[in-house]
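Write out the bound-state structure for pyridoxal-5'-phosphate.
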Amino acid sequence: MVRIIDDAFYVIRTICQLHICYVASTYEVFIRAGVLVIRLAAGEPDFNTPSVIVEVGINAICEGHTWYTPNAGLLDVCSPSDEVIIPGPFYVSYPEMARMADANPVIVETSLNNNFLLYPKVLESKLNEKSRVLILCSPSNPTGSVYPRKLMEEIAKIVAKHPRLLVLSDEIYEHIVYASTTHISLLLLCLECEREH
Ligand SMILES: Cc1ncc(COP(=O)(O)O)c(C=O)c1O
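---
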């Protein structure tokens, strides 16, 4: 019983430490004090939800689409002391997500010189028998980097050599690409390769 309560407190403490919530609540204080704040924390637009989206949402609820979607994630795939590889700079919640799954976040720093991209040799040097998940975010928040096809292919090849390693491919910003580049989905890339071979 004590263990359960301890675990619950650990989870609550962890969630409370999600930095994004802290930043979002802090800037509200500044805004109320009349300070001009440019919000770059939570991914929230500065306009109301367009009516066409509101309508689709209401219709979906009326049609009974109110149940949980599949939510298997890190909690389901990680065991204690597994490692979750996170290229940095990273979206702030990733390490907490790993910790909540009892896994260890392994931050692999990237640099401006490499466009904040994770290079194959660096990835390979971090892989071991504990490596369970690689979190890849492209287009990336916060760096804006987009993995080019060739680099994505090289990463896919390395992942294929490590059967225990899963990739959590965060493509949430697939439609927000500013430079003359194209978003490459790791999953689609792998499916393409499978079809060709
Ligand atoms: C890269 C990235 N992944 C995931 C999320 C979280 O998405 P959700 O709103 O579905 O929790 C965010 C939110 O800012 C994000 O920037």
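---
Residues 43, 91, 137, 141, 170, 172 surround pyridoxal-5'-phosphate (CB under 6 Å).
The radius of gyration is 20 Å.
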